[in-house]
Design a protein that fits this description.
5-stranded mixed β-barrel, binds 5'-deoxyadenosine, binds iron/sulfur cluster, 14 helices, single chain, 19 strands
Length: about 475
């Protein structure tokens, strides 16, 4: 079947399930683990599920359909899934809740087996390459009362036009590419998400234009390795950034994650030239030690990473960075860890996502013999955390007295009288203002650093909105 025919075929199942469910007022709950790509996949699942007549509720034990979209990048997600499955057993017995598990973890053979053996009451297992077939799988599970296992191990295709139900009405994620070819030695992603494949530029542009028409202001372009986006002959990530920047109505563009080894001059130039691209770059470091980076198969050295950051900063002086760091990769010595701290000190990141190395079955890292004891990993993690906290506190202090462009997101959760928004660098700002400002980008003066957020004031002279 051709790709677009496949989606049309699924629409028939959407209608069939909708008919089966007519008048039943059914509910569903979805639990999403992991990264923004998974969040975006879940928005597609929600789009399909709501079209089939289900209404979203917060409590999975009360739902008629409980879906879990899993992640397997680190071990803790497994404990969470099995805990949840245990809880759902009773709901299944009492009200026949349909239990469906999908996503990255389901691509792993040992997990499939564990579910078959220990959680046989699971109705549907689907993988990363069969998400678009959820309506057909659900129909078969209901109609045939069969247990469905729909996981395939291929490089995957790019499906367009799957219904989407978005979580937010100002900020939206748009996946531009799927899969990964890098095989970093700690990472499971290339095994569960297949090889890199990019969406066509025209489909991405169309989706963003559509979002702009619906009132969305901020777009995050997503992919495991966005700067190896390949939109066809002579069309790369820099071209895509420039084209998205032209779309009227969109005020802010973000992207995650680029790989330092693929950060080309033209992308730096595009970030500099495109006014809507937020001047914060997520540049995953993983480790600051050249030796560990080599073992991780990251294909850059400590010096190359620092040079890249310097080069970007020279071109775009206002740029700041965020990063991902793994602590305790096999063979990491005290000296190697010091190199990581050294890079953190030198770059002075705006935000650091810190992870303790987690062994993943099937990756080269898992087979390495020089694994680091848990205690050492935790101690190093805490040392890194203290340094990062100290830096972020100092960085927040620097905002006081500056003027910042804020995308006003809504009323503050804790105080109805106040509004909340974010700076380009993703800092939360709380300030007093009229709710007509929601959805606009305005200039705010930062008056206080309240640790968890910044307090701002709309300066009387500058209260005109910037558009
Ligand atoms: N252990 C710990 N962290 C990991 N990451 C990926 N694989 C692992 C692992 N096995 C982290 C990396 C990546 C982020 C999404 O998750 O830092 O950038
Ligand atoms: Fe994993 Fe490396 Fe690919 Fe990122 S680039 S998804 S860390 S293999």
């Amino acid at each position: 079947m051709k790709i677009n025919e496949e989606i049309e075929y699924q629409k028939e199942f959407i209608d069939k399930v909708k008919k089966l469910n007519e008048g039943k007022k059914l509910t569903y709950n979805i639990l999403t683990m992991g990264c923004q790509l998974n969040e975006n996949d879940s928005e597609k699942l929600c789009g399909m599920i709501e079209k089939m007549g289900y209404t979203k509720i917060e409590e999975s034990k009360q739902a008629d359909l409980a879906v879990m979209n899993t992640c397997c990048v680190r071990e803790n997600a497994e404990d969470r899934l099995f805990g949840k499955l245990g809880e759902l057993k009773k709901a299944k017995e009492e009200k026949g809740t349909i239990i469906a598990i999908g996503g990255c973890m389901m691509q792993e053979k040992h997990i499939q087996e564990k579910i078959r053996k220990s959680y046989p009451y699971t109705d549907i297992i689907f993988g990363t390459h069969t998400l678009h077939k959820f309506p057909e799988d659900l129909y078969n599970a209901i109609k045939e009362k069969k247990r469905i296992e729909d996981v395939i191990d291929i490089d995957g295709k790019v499906y367009e036009n799957i219904p989407v139900k978005r979580n937010d009405n100002l900020k939206a994620s748009v996946t531009i590419m799927y899969g990964c070819n890098n095989f970093c030695s700690y990472c499971i992603v290339p095994y569960v998400r297949g090889r890199e494949r990019s969406r066509k530029p025209e489909n991405i542009i169309e989706e963003v234009k559509c979002l702009a028409n619906k009132g969305y202001k901020e777009i995050t372009l997503l992919g495991q390795n966005v700067n190896s986006y390949n939109g066809g002959e002579n069309y790369n990530f820099a071209n895509l950034l420039k084209d998205v920047n032209k779309i009227e109505g969109i005020e802010r563009i973000r992207f995650v994650s680029p790989h330092p080894k693929d950060f080309t001059e033209d992308v730096i130039k595009a970030i500099k030239e495109c006014s809507k691209i937020c001047k914060i770059i997520h540049l995953p470091l993983q480790s600051g030690s050249t030796k560990v980076l080599k073992e991780m198969n990251r294909k850059y050295t400590k010096e190359q990473y620092l040079e890249l950051a310097q080069k970007i900063k020279k071109e775009i002086p206002e740029i700041v960075f965020s990063t991902d760091i793994i602590v305790g990769f096999p063979g990491e010595t005290e000296e190697d860890f010091e190199d990581t701290l050294d890079v953190v000190r030198k770059i002075n990141y705006e935000q650091v996502y810190m992870f303790i190395y987690s062994r993943r079955v099937g990756t080269p890292g898992d087979k390495m013999e020089n694994q680091i004891p848990e205690e050492t990993k935790h101690k190093r993690f805490n040392r890194l955390k203290s340094l990062v906290e100290e830096q972020t506190e100092n960085n927040s202090e620097k905002y006081v007295g500056t003027k910042q462009k804020i995308l006003v997101e809504g009323k503050s959760k804790n105080n109805d009288e106040m509004l909340t928004g974010r700076t380009e660098t993703n800092k939360v700002v709380i300030f007093e203002g009229n709710k007509d400002l929601i959805g606009k980008v305005i200039e705010i003066e930062i008056v206080r650093n309240a640790i968890w957020y910044l307090q701002g004031e709309i300066n009387a002279r500058n209260s005109l909105k910037i558009e």
